[in-house]
Amino acid sequence: MNKEVLDSLFRPQKVAVVGASTNSTKIGYKVLENLIEWKYGGKIYPINPKGGEILGLKAYADIKDVPD
Q1: What does the alpha-carbon distance between residue 59 and residue 53 come to, in Å, rounded to a whole number?
Q2: DSSP 1-67
Q3: 16: which of 3, 51, 59, 66 is 20 to 30 A away, CA to CA?
Q4: What is the pLDDT of residues 12-54, one digit of tens each?
Q5: Cα–Cα distance measured from residue 27 to residue 6, given in angstroms and rounded to the nearest whole number
Q6: pLDDT for residue 1 is more than 80
Q7: Per-residue pLDDT, 28
Q8: Three-class secondary structure of residue 68 per DSSP
Q9: What does residue 66 show for φ and ψ, rounded to 5 degrees?
């Protein structure tokens, strides 16, 4: 594998958290919370069928709705 492939796997510039939740006991919430707390440097896209906002980030109802 070349460096570009490895970088895209281990240092992504953006991530979608499919199953992001507003419920703080759910794993989707915890994943999102950890990305924010540990200051992930890329773009974060929470995916939740209800849309709205989760932890201050715009949530998308479907991954097809993500602008990037």
Answers
A1: 5
A2: --HHHHHHHHS-SEEEEET--S-TTSHHHHHHHHHHHTT--SEEEEE-TT-SEETTEE-BSSGGG--
A3: 3
A4: 999 999 999 999 999 999 999 999 999 999 999 999 999 999 9
A5: 26
A6: no
A7: 97
A8: coil
A9: -65, 130
